[in-house]
Every structure is written in C-alpha cells, then in structure tokens.
Fold:
Amino acid sequence: MDVRRTIAAFPLQVLLGAATFVALVATLVVASGGASLALTLRLAALTTVLFVFAVGFSAGPLAERYL
Structure:
C-alpha cells in the first residue's frame, strides 16, 4: 500500500482523519488539564462529528472497492 497513492485517491478522507486525530488529542489535553467541562464537551462533540463524517465519506469508496 503506497501512502502517496492513498492520499491522492482519498484526499478528503485523509484530511478528515487527520482533523479527527488532532481534535481527539486536543480533547484529551484539555480534559487532562482541568479546563471547564463545557469546553471539554464541545471538543468531544467536534471529535465525534469529524469521526462520523470521516467514516461516512470512507464507507462509499471502501464498499465499492471491497464488495
């Protein structure tokens, strides 16, 4: 599996995956730092939405390829 070919074939999925990872790390840092519960929940909601979009956009091409 070539990383460059995967990024070229699925740029939106890669971008959403990276954004999800960054939001997850930010959520963990904020939660461990003792910030307000509202901020932690907002970041967790953002992470969840990004994850759902990444999975949703990946489901079509993956199903097309492997089914």
The mean pLDDT is 84. The radius of gyration is 15 Å. Residues 3 and 9 are 10 Å apart (CA to CA).
